[in-house]
């Protein structure tokens, strides 16, 4: 019984670790794809204190389609 529970726990952990890595890869891709849009729409705003996130939300409708698609993919990968 213990062996079965341990096996299930290890499989769940491995799945969670894989999902986290996929989420990180999608997030990195979104950063790279969205960098030009962020520089154009939020110039001079540095990360921290929610300032950049607020700017991104404020200008959400102005981001390019590749950027919005990348952000959606990153969000989906983080919250499977």
UniProtKB/TrEMBL annotation:
Signal peptide residue numbers: 1-19
Keywords: Signal
Domain of life the protein comes from: Bacteria
Protein name: Cysteine rich repeat-containing protein
């Amino acid at each position: 019984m213990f062996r079965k529970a341990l096996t299930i726990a290890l499989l769940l952990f491995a799945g969670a670790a894989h999902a986290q890595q996929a989420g990180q890869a999608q997030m990195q891709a979104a950063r790279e794809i969205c960098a030009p849009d962020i520089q154009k729409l939020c110039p001079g705003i540095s990360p921290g204190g929610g300032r950049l996130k607020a700017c991104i939300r404020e200008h959400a409708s102005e981001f390019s389609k590749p950027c919005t698609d990348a952000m959606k993919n990153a969000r989906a990968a983080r919250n499977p």
